[in-house]
Design a protein that fits this description.
Radius of gyration: 19 Å
Structural class: mainly alpha
Amino acid sequence: MIGLILFLFGCLVFGALFYNLRAQGPLLAWDQSIANTLPAIGLNSPPFVKVLMNAGFYIGDQVLVGFAVLLGIYFIIKRYWQEFFMVALGLGGASLLFLSLSNWIGRARPLTQIWIFEKIPGFPSGHAISVVAFYGLLAYFLVPKITSAFGKAAVVVAALLVIGFVGFSRVFTGGHYLTDVLAGFAVGLAWSGAIYTLIELYFQKRRSKNVKKE
């Protein structure tokens, strides 16, 4: 049920943002205003701001991929196949969704990009899709194993902070418009709700069949 809710909510939010883009809706004015303001602030900020904001790019890209590979290897060694397929299909599908949707929609990135420059179309944000799919999955793995309510809350808050930081850094550096990132979060929610629920249901049915055979 939770997976279905996430899927429907993500699809609705993405659909609304996509409609706003195609209809040249009011959110585009906010997009442009923010894209003109935040990168300009970045260029006039102390050097550590550049390091911090660029870190958001790598946390949502190379760092994420590195963690995913290590997790995948660990799950293969331990033969945790449900968890392995969640990582592999979750992130693999997230990348395919980004490439398919961004190239189909074809929205150019802001002209105000600073420090890190990308040319591939930016709606929805690939970083936003991936961080929701991966760091959300980490929280999904860790929360059931933690006994204290404080620990569970800390993991969820930490995941949300990382996701929010990566999204903010992509807007701050002009790598994406705000609605690119929001659309990416929506796609990430929809994809996570669908794929992780389907994988869990598949393995639950598989375990039930094995129990009946025994």
